[in-house]
Amino acid sequence: MTTDIEKQYRVHETSIGGHSYRVFEDNHTHLAELYGCFTEYADSELVVFQNQRLSYALVGVRAARLSLALSNQYDIQVGTRIGIALANSPHWLTAFIAVSAMGATPVLINARTTPADLTYCLESTDCKLWFGDVANPTAVPCLTSTDMDLVAADQNSPALPMIKREPEDEAILIFTSGTTGRPKAAILTHLGVLTALKTIAYSSALITLDMARQYNMDYETIAKLKPSPVTLLIFPLFHVSGCHAVFLSALLQGGKLILMEKWSPTAALQLMQDEKVTAFPGVPTMHWDLLRLEQRQSYDLSSLTSLSVGGQGTPPALLSAIHAAYPQAVIGTGYGMTEANGTVTLAVGNRFLENPRSAGAPISLIDTEIRDDAGSQVSTNSIGEIHVRGSTLMAGYANSDVNPFDENGWFATGDIGYLDADNQLYIVDRRTDMVISGGENIYCAEIEQTIDLHPAVMESAAIGRPDERLGEKLIVVVVPLPGRTVSPQEVLDLCSEHLAKNKIPKTVLIRTDPLNRIASGKINKRMIRQELEQSEPASQGGQQ
Predict the structure, then answer these.
(1) How confident is the model at residue 2 (pLDDT cuts 50, 70, 90)?
(2) What secondary structure does DSSP assign to 356-383, as a single string?
(3) Domains and their CATH numbers in the chain
(4) Tag placement on the chain: N or C end, fewer CB within 10 Å?
(5) pTM > 0.70: yes or no
């Protein structure tokens, strides 16, 4: 039953930049090769947004017209970098397809970024043009959505150019969604992007294979019975989760994207029912929003077969609630980063349910090592910084002269974790989030995972604050589930039960509003620190 899958996803070694990496034997070689989808799925719907329903054919025509206008009116050439700072919309899709089809490079920028950061992103990557809808003075010329419609309307109906690029040429620039320092633009090559996309497809094929075994059916039969994916997309398209895992992956399968202008749990349920949504990737707060709606059970959500929780560790209470609410759906999570074109590890289905603390096993094309501060590889179950290497990794940063790789091609992720005897990865913390209190390292993720065990806790964040005696003191911010309460003392008692004494928070702050998050869905700890600086001395919560 695995023969066809093994053939389709067979890998071999190849040399890239003087190092040997694993790649798929059979794969697309450049991004524009994906765009045969506009002919293959011409009559199928690609995107639904508000009152718009656009077919593959129509999006392809719009992109072709825009490509011609960019070439004729703006002299955009192969390799020219063009910024895209639009919100999720059909215009975003059209801009990306038009730019990449003509061999230029889309530079994906946070649509909600500040004017100063926008200018920095455009200028530091030498963009010649950018697409955006927010009035923002910059020396780089801008095309708004209205401008895009006007220039494209003046064109005939040309064919999409689909310019060939080399596998190691830059395909996309995506800014890392970190919470400190200036944003860095990861150079993602055609080989890296397409390898990542096929890895996502391989994971989906393995899930289908599990289903075939479960129902004692032939793999090919199950695969043919599966409908094309219909994904409710709330992740931003300028982030690798939205761009790769949803948008570009959909093109490979003739999938449909349901876009939302802003998050609304009630509207999301209505769209899931009306559009027969099969997949919903969301951050923990979104899943909690859906689960707590009393009217949720009045909606027909039987089409949902795939749910993923991204951006942050999944509290056990949330995972159990999701599984109980959608027993027909496969639930997954993983660990990844922009620099690796998204996925580094995956945990899906029963493997995730049975071990929710794990971020899953590294994908087959990625090598993973845990190293100590001296750079030496540590043993199983020992904590250190996660290092990765593989064919999905970026070529470097477009706006930095610093080489992010060591002499053997390894990339230091800045994340702290460990691998167990089954090669499952556990994320302990972000190096920059680690608190050093009284000379002892405290990993914030460990504190948060403990607090999230409380059945009334929706989410939590642990951070360090300056302290004259300890160097740093540990503070946690806790948000209870709507309609539930949790006291600072309950949190302290829970920590005392599960953690060493030096890891027990010095201060517990209880808040009712969800914690602010960055584009990737991770909690924005920089903003939490700024809020605490403005409000100190703390007047909420309790102290130990």
Answers:
(1) very low
(2) TT--BEEPTTEEEEEE-TTSPBPPTT--
(3) 31-164 (3.40.50.980), 227-328 (3.40.50.980), 434-543 (3.30.300.30)
(4) N
(5) yes
